[in-house]
Amino acid sequence: MMDRIYFADNPWPNGHRIAAFKWGAHFKYGEEAELAGRAGLYFDLHIETADYYEEDADEEEEEDQDQDEEALSDWQAKIVWGNYHSCTLSSEEWGDKGFLVGSDQAPFDPEALDGKEFAVDFLSQEEQELIDFDQTAFDVYLLGHDAAAFHTIAFTKKAGAVYQIDWKGKLALAYVSDYEFKYDFHTSITAASFSGITIPAELTDDEAYGLLQRFVSTPSFFQLQNRQGERRFVFK
Question: Is 22:44 a contact under the CB 8 Å cutoff?
Answer without folding.
Answer: yes
